[in-house]
């Protein structure tokens, strides 16, 4: 598994989606309030087009009408709960990045800006403060939200709601392989300027959804749950994007062809928009004469890596003893790194969701595994945690199927297609959840897109979408590839793990300690810096690596020359040949090393006795 697996900051549970459909009250019964700072009026494409005078947020789901609320603040006969034929912005994906993007666009363009958020899942997110919805802690995967995500939530006025339902993680408690006593766990306090806070991914979605419903009910936003988006054309004579919005269940109604001035792909690893962009650009390149094709702009492409170090997982609910801290990330590895256990707090009451990371072929990773074998493994390798898991839970974990981690992918060389389409978040850069950079970088994307809109508005009074799309793509496309490549280098198997991860971390620690102004900290330390982006981190570490190799090479050369002179001097004094003296010195060095190891082993044996 490697040392990197002990650095998980996101836990994934084996269940996905909600089993209970949420019910939203009529918006007129909610405690509605306007934002303290009203949205500024920013020109948008075709700003003279007709818009509804009665502005509202509409919540739509393709689930049966008896189970959901299709309501609006103002009654509009023309609004039947179906997608419209025209929007100012369409967002594909109703996860954290998609919902945060809706808030960003609403705050940027104001109430008259027509926004559609299309999410494939039909279930309306439950309230983040409804404890009954989150009792089964092993059903939901956990996100560790660091400074990137927290800064974005603060920017759009959501942090207070997020803080109320999340738990701080103030450090780690690790057990090294073979160390199984409770007291063997070593606590390392978090050394971060911004402490990460943890909550289930679906709870974060609930925070954003209910923040929208509460604070933007009189905005022109359609939340379309149970709908998917398929692009038709990214560019045409009308200078807009045409898509098809369809219910995921074909029995829930017809598809609607809609046009928009801005299409945002935030649908995660599904990559509906990104895949369509790749296909459209491939057709564009194919239509160019082979003679001129080398001079055409590089096509949009999704780079997909084969997972050469796959891991699957099972989630385990654990309730900590009262004398264990409830604000730590607990981590343990078995001997031989067969299984890694990582646990993060689901709440502040000591309920944890632990994750067992295993290789796909491991006996314990299989569905319908013998619970007795899993119990025996815990008794042998993780008794400090096994004592906290009763037989019923152990049986549930053993017999349920495992889940997979996402593979590394990124898009490039740009994040846009034409003037009015862009992708962000996992749709642009997918990483494994080892280092807490998935949801955090996605929300950071949204904030950077918002900054691009603001900057474009400050320099132009016309349609600002094309310039903002271009600026965001130029600013963030390099980060997308750098983030994925750096993360993948820390997840390589076998000998590559030592070359691309372990040795660089050791070298960074040594050189940064000797010359901190010249050499940066390890990759993990660089990820915590708020003054540098992913592309800059990649460049800095490449420069560090070159300088380290030059210094090491120079040192080895100087040492070799000195050793050569020493051998020559001794050979002359003894009247022996240089090869004979060199061989003798090597033999003495080998013997000294063996004697040192023997003395150390004897000392350890005496200490044990």
Automatic annotation (TrEMBL):
<keyword id="KW-0274">FAD</keyword>
<protein>
    <recommendedName>
        <fullName>FAD-binding domain-containing protein</fullName>
    </recommendedName>
</protein>
<keyword id="KW-0560">Oxidoreductase</keyword>
<dbReference type="Pfam" id="PF01494">
    <property type="entry name" value="FAD_binding_3"/>
</dbReference>
<keyword id="KW-0285">Flavoprotein</keyword>
<dbReference type="GO" id="GO:0071949">
    <property type="term" value="F:FAD binding"/>
</dbReference>
<feature type="domain" description="FAD-binding">
    <location>
        <begin position="232"/>
        <end position="458"/>
    </location>
</feature>
<keyword id="KW-0521">NADP</keyword>
<keyword id="KW-0732">Signal</keyword>
<dbReference type="InterPro" id="IPR002938">
    <property type="entry name" value="FAD-bd"/>
</dbReference>
<dbReference type="GO" id="GO:0004502">
    <property type="term" value="F:kynurenine 3-monooxygenase activity"/>
</dbReference>
<dbReference type="InterPro" id="IPR036188">
    <property type="entry name" value="FAD/NAD-bd_sf"/>
</dbReference>
<feature type="signal peptide">
    <location>
        <begin position="1"/>
        <end position="17"/>
    </location>
</feature>
<keyword id="KW-0503">Monooxygenase</keyword>
<dbReference type="GO" id="GO:0070189">
    <property type="term" value="P:kynurenine metabolic process"/>
</dbReference>
């Amino acid at each position: 598994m490697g040392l990197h697996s002990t650095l998980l900051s996101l836990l994934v549970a084996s269940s996905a989606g909600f089993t209970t459909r949420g019910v939203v009250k009529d918006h007129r019964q909610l405690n509605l309030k306007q934002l303290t700072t009203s949205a500024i009026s920013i020109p948008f494409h075709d700003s003279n087009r007709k818009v509804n005078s009665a502005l509202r947020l509409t919540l739509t789901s393709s689930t049966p009408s008896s189970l959901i609320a299709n309501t609006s603040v103002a009654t509009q006969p023309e609004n039947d709960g179906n997608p419209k034929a025209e929007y100012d912005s369409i967002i594909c994906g109703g996860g954290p990045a998609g919902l945060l993007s809706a808030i960003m666009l609403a705050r940027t363009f104001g109430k008259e800006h027509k926004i559609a958020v299309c999410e494939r899942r039909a279930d309306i997110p439950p309230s983040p403060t409804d404890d009954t919805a989150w009792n089964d802690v092993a059903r939901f995967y956990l996100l560790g939200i660091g400074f990137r995500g927290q800064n974005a939530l603060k920017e759009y006025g959501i942090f207070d709601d997020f803080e109320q339902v999340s738990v701080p993680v103030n450090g780690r408690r690790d057990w090294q392989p073979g160390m199984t006593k409770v007291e063997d766990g070593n606590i390392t306090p978090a050394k971060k300027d911004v402490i990460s806070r943890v909550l289930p991914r679906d709870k974060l979605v609930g925070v954003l959804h209910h923040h929208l419903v509460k604070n933007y009910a009189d905005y022109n936003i359609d939340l379309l749950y149970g709908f998917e988006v398929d692009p038709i054309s990214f560019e045409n004579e009308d200078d807009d994007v045409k898509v098809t919005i369809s219910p995921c269940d074909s029995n829930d109604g017809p598809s609607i062809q809609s046009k928009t001035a801005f299409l945002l792909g935030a649908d995660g690893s599904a990559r509906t928009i990104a895949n369509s962009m790749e296909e459209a650009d491939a057709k564009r390149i194919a239509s160019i004469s082979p003679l001129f094709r080398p001079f055409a702009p590089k096509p949009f492409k999704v780079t997909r890596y084969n997972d050469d170090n796959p891991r699957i997982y099972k989630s385990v609910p654990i309730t900590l003893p009262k004398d264990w801290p409830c604000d730590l990330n607990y981590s343990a590895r078995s001997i031989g790194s067969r299984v890694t256990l990582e646990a993060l707090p689901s709440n502040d009451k000591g309920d944890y969701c632990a994750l067992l990371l295993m290789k796909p072929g491991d006996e314990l990773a299989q569905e319908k595994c013998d619970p007795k074998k899993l119990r025996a493994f815990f008794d042998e390798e993780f008794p400090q945690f096994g004592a906290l898991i009763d037989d019923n839970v152990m049986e549930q974990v053993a017999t349920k199927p495992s889940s997979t981690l996402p593979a590394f992918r990124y898009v490039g060389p740009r994040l846009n297609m034409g003037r009015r389409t862009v992708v962000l978040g996992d749709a642009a850069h997918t990483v494994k959840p080892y280092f807490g950079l998935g949801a955090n970088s996605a929300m950071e994307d949204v904030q950077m897109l918002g900054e691009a809109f603001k900057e474009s508005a400050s320099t132009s009074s016309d349609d600002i979408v094309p310039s903002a799309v271009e600026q965001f793509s130029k600013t963030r496309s390099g980060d997308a590839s750098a983030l994925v490549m750096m993360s993948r280098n820390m997840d390589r198997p076998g000998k590559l793990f030592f070359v691309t991860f372990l040795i660089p971390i050791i070298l960074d620690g040594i050189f940064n300690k000797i010359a901190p102004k010249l050499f940066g900290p390890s990759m993990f330390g660089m990820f915590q810096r708020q003054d540098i982006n992913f592309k800059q981190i990649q460049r800095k570490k490449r420069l560090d690596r070159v300088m380290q190799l030059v210094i090491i090479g120079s040192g080895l050369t100087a040492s070799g020359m000195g050793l050569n002179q020493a051998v020559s001097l001794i050979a002359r004094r003894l009247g022996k040949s240089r090869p004979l003296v060199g061989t003798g010195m090597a033999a003495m060095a080998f013997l000294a090393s063996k004697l040192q190891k023997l003395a150390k082993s004897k000392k350890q044996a005496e200490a044990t006795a």
